[in-house]
Amino acid sequence: MAEPKPLSREEYAASRLQHHFVSMAQQRDASTLAMWVFLVTEILFFGGFFLTYTVYRWQDPVGFAHASQHMDIVLGTVNTAVLIISSLTMAMAVHSAATGRRKALLGYLSLTILLGFAFLGIKAVEYTDHIEHHLFPGPSFHFPGPDKPAAQMFFSLYFGMTGLHALHMIIGIGIVGTLLVMAWRGRFTPEYHSPIEVTGLYWHFVDIVWIFLFPLLYLIGRHLK
Amino acid sequence: MSAELTPPRLDETPPRASYLTAGYGVKSWLLTRDHKRIALLYLASITFFFFLGGLFALLIRLELLTPEGDLVQPETYNKLFTMHGIVMVFFFLIPSIPAVLGNFFIPMMIGAKDLAFPRLNLLSWYIYMIGGLFTLWAVVHGGVDTGWTFYAPFSTVSSSSHVIPAALGIFITGFSSILTGLNFIVTIHTMRAPGMTWFRLPLFVWSHYATSLIFVLGTPVIAVTILLVALERVLHLGFFDPALGGDPVLFQHLFWFYSHPAVYIMVLPAMGVVSEIVPTFARKSVFGYRFVAYASVAIAVLGFLVWGHHMFVSGQSVYAGLFFSLLSFCVAIPSAVKVFNWTATMYKGSISWRTPMLYAFGFVGLFTIGGLTGLFLATLGVDVHVHDTYFIIAHFHYIMVGGAIMGYLGGIHYWWPKMSGKMYPEGLAKFAAFVVFVGFNLTFFPQFIVGYLGMPRRYHSYPPEFQVLNVMSTAGASILGFGYVLPLAYLFWSMRYGKDASSNPWGATGLEWRTPSPPPTENFPVTPVVDWEPYEYRPKTEVAAVG
Amino acid sequence: MSDATGAHAGGGDPVRHGAMTEHIVSPRIYLAVFAILILMTGTTTAVSFVDLGPWNTVVALAIAVFKATLVVLFFMHIKYSRPLMRIVIFGGLFWLAILLLLTLSDFMTRGWLPVFQRFEP
User: Fold this and answer.
1) pLDDT band, residue C7 (cuts 50/70/90)
2) CA nearest A60 in B: which residue?
3) Rounded Cα distance, B77 and B81, in Å
4) Which of B198, B304, B308 is nearest residue C106 as measured by Cβ atoms?
5) Helix A24-59 and helix B163-190: axis angle, to 10°?
6) Which residue among B16, B73, B124, B526 has its CA within the 20 to 30 Å range from the CA of B305?
7) Is a pLDDT exceeding 70 seen at residue B27?
8) Phi and psi angles of residue B388, each rounded to the nearest 5 degrees, phi first
């Protein structure tokens, strides 16, 4: 069997065009629109949690503030910064793909994955800390003072919201990892890199969710001390 | 032409190349990316769930034949109506028209070769099946007794039935809805053929666009609601249980934010089907095309503003109740626009009484009754009287069965020649449509009366004075059941013995009728270029083609 | 499959086929946005230690909205993409607002009627 002749860049891009699309632009447009529509479903998915949070915080704002004082603000701020850096590296990865710099693309994708793991690591430290202090809701939940019911609700929401966010991070890391392998094999060209682009959109969205979780969970009771 | 060189042999007709003959093995179906084949996969699976849900309904009606609770235990009865609701709502009604007819015909109606994401389309069928298997598992292992609404804290604390597997099944199936809706939205935006502008789209496509909006915007909220229920039930994180500081009414808000619009997921596609059938068999252009198109989107939007009318007696604030009551009346406006426009389309048309048209007539009448009784229920004071009675049951079955299933059956009959390439026996089909209509009304009209008289829903026994009406209802249900088995039988029969269908047996104008029946895998031999307006029916001239 | 010609600019959207070119954002803009985001993170943490009464939440959320807007506009290229994508985002936010506001219309008005005031032991 003879080795197949290597494709030129244009031929390769054309080979990536699926049969039911007319042009690469149409195919790209479809996948970008699809990702945005998907992100809208994600807005409403997290929206259920944000609604629950709003209702219960409105019912007992002081209790929520007192519960929030048990969060580690240093770790929270650092983690926010970690996610923002990872958004920068993801944006740079898309840029590298669009300008056809494969080595830079590989570097930025790897950095994004590392930062994703760093975020999850810090989150794990925080979780361990909370569980050791009996702040996981349930029979072993312990919170001194009259704010126990509100605090239990706060920590239910905290674990629910950050857990769901962490799950999105894990999925994101998995997708970026797949892209890294594909980029390693030279699958992306300036003409064809929409998988990186739409994954970037997803990654930034997960970052935005955290941008809201951070003030709502970490910062509400700081000035009370 | 090669036909002149080699004359066709008389003893064999050459097989027509179509999506049905593109491959024969099991693999060619289970790994297909052709939207038409995926539509048929959905058709087979939702038919299964329809008859499973129907079986539960049958058992419910049998129990209610007599006032005493004699056939099943109260707990079993709870499980029966729960499983009937879950299977019918999540596994039949919601996917029915979009996943079968929408999947098959949206790409064809807009002149595309496929949906924008064929693999995602296949994936959504597999997701649907996995969700279905979880729910079946729950059925086989003893069922769920919470009602299809999963109200907390009963579902999160008290119920000892299989809440989690059933809820997981619905959660998973939700992703199938989301992917289908996403696929439709992107397809309608990016895949239209040259010249197919927004206002040349068939109204079926418009109504599916509106439906997809609900899929995409509503389904994630039911997903997160189920997630919250699961977290409370499994990990004892408190969200809704008052013992843990939660508020059960919050669950109802989250649940109905999706589940009220879900009713429009069921009925909007049926409206789309009727909007196709009526002009075809009245030989007239749709009256007020743009109004019907906008009304679909208006129903999708307004449908999201009314959910609180399910909670008038649940401890919701009276002020919110007033507000939701007012907004609920607003949905009647676009719905009425549609009914008036269909009626005006039929006015002075040359109507032919074919099977799809019979279903369309049935739809318009029954939907109107269902819609108007909905206004009774949107009225705060009346709702307090009839809440949780059989009046509600009758009302929403007029929408879901009288509306959605009539539309579904009408659509199946309308497009069957295109999907299968065969004609069904017309006389038998008309008879079945008649049986369904009679059976339906006999089943559900008495329930309006018995509900108004005060018979509550979800009990397996009732006072003896309600028996006459309940016997009528049960008798109607058996007629209805027979009416549903008939199409199953003769449509199967027609696949083998039916007459071959021409490419356009009804003389309709849509793009899907300008390609052979059954269509080739790529839908059109060449990409069509659209330079005509929708529904350009000229009265009388093409009547001969219809017969 | 061979009908991929330029004449295929069909449908209603003029930007559908071929007309849309990708806008490549300069890394300098990315760095500037990144710097503002980090600065804002520091600011929101610092401000949370100052007692502003009810304004603490308002400021924190305003900063979060500002940060999110920057990410959407620049990192997610919305500043450079077609209007449809913006409509999609506004649609999502509008429906989120429906979910929040209509539900809160219940919770916030429950105490208005004296009969339904919460039970205080």
Assistant:
1) very low
2) B245
3) 6
4) B308
5) 140
6) B124
7) yes
8) 60, 30
Task: Please judge whether A223 and C51 are an interchain contact, meaning their C-beta atoms are less than 8 angstroms apart.
Answer: yes
CA-to-CA dists, residue B230 to A160, B154, B155, B173, B533, angstroms: 11, 12, 9, 16, 51
CA pseudo-torsion sign A203, A204, A209, A211: positive
Q: How far apart are the first and last CA of chain B?
A: 33
**What are the chain A neighbours of C45 within 8 Å (beta carbons)?**
73, 77, 219
Q: Report the 10 Å Cβ neighbour count for A193.
A: 27
From B190, B223, B245, residue closest to A33, measured CB to CB? B190
Q: What kind and span of H or E run contains A31?
A: helix A24-59
For B503-532, what is each residue's pLDDT tens digit?
999 999 999 999 998 999 999 988 899 998
Query: What torsion, rounded to 10 degrees, do the Cα atoms B198, B203, B205, B208 define?
Result: 120
Question: CB–CB of A48 and B235 under 8 A?
Answer: no
Residues in A closer than 8 angstroms to C72, CB to CB, are 204, 208
| CA-wise closest residue to B519 among B441, B418, B433, B428 | B418
Give the separation between CA C12 and CA C9, rounded to whole angstroms. Answer: 9
**Shortest Cα–Cα distance, A169 to chain B (Å):** 17
CB neighbours of B182 closer than 8 A, spacing ≥ 6? Answer: A34, A37, A38, A41, B117, B120, B212, B215, B216
pLDDT tens digits, B156-199: 988 888 999 999 999 999 999 999 999 999 999 999 999 999 99
Determine how many CB atoms are found less than 10 A away from the CB of residue C32.
13
d(CA A96, CA A107) in angstroms, rounded, equals 10
Cβ atoms of B328 and B261 within 8 Å: the answer is: no
- Looking at the complex, does the CB of residue B220 fall below 8 Å from at least one CB of chain A? yes
Among A23-32, B207-216, B254-263, B404-413, the minimum mean pLDDT is found in: A23-32
**A49 in B contact zone (CB under 8 Å):** yes
CA distance C101 to C57: 18
Report the pLDDT averaged over residues A197-214: 97
State chain B's mean pLDDT as an integer: 93
Percent helix / strand / coil, chain A, rounded to 5: 75, 0, 25
Structure tokens at B264: 């429009």
Which of C92, C98, C105 faces B323 most closely, judged by CB atoms? C105
Q: Enter the pTM of the model.
A: 0.93
What interface predicted TM-score (ipTM) does this complex get?
A: 0.93
Tell me how far apart the alpha carbons of residues B35 and B129 are, in angstroms, rounded to a whole number.
Answer: 17
Q: Which two tokens stand for residue B392?
A: 């509600």
- Is the CB of A37 inside 8 Å of chain B's CB atoms? yes
- Helix B248-282 to helix C83-107 angle (10° resolution) is 130
Q: Which among A10, A29, A213, A224 is the top mutation candidate for probing chain C, defined by the most C β-carbons within 10 Å of its own β-carbon?
A: A29
